[in-house]
């Protein structure tokens, strides 16, 4: 999955450039940028990449993942039942939950949409974490630059910050990055 149209617009606005400026920088018309942002067309992958590369180059991203990650990470144990998992997700307002083994090492992640699919097919009293686990999203170091985090989050809904033993240190979602960019955008004096 690549940029959500709303994300492109929000990031562009957080950086403080107009549609015309972005269009000029990537060699397209302003009307094309407007149509992409308004969801009127489904752009080519090459255009999305150009937009992403330009926005990344324009943002000040000297910060690292540890600056925006949420910690501690709410996790599920591999044999935890679905009721406990759903209770955690509701309590913390999260749509995904990393899964750890008995050594507290990451082994996968549970997304709400997978949970929904399983519940439609199976008795909830029979489901445990290992039945609904998905492969891990990208794993990064706490010192990973935000430009790299941004690249990952154009393809994945979440990334996990881990130590060398695959123990979760933090979690970063697209919303976290967007919020950070908007909050930390500094306009140049006019």
Task: Describe the protein in words.
The chain is built from 9 helices and 6 strands. Helix 1 packs parallel to helix 4, helix 1 packs parallel to helix 9 and helix 2 packs across helix 3 (30-37). Helices cover 45% and strands 14% of the residues. Residues 186-190 have low confidence and may be disordered. The chain has 190 residues and is α/β, with parallel strands linked by helices. The protein folds into 2 domains: 5-58, lambda repressor-like DNA-binding domains (434 Repressor (Amino-terminal Domain), Orthogonal Bundle); 65-180, CBS-domain. Strands 1-2-3 form a 3-stranded mixed β-sheet. It has a 3-stranded mixed β-sheet with strand order 4-5-6. The chain starts with a helix and ends in a 6-residue tail after the last helix. GO terms for molecular function: DNA binding. Pfam families: CBS, HTH_3. This is XRE family transcriptional regulator. Residues 69-127 form the CBS domain.
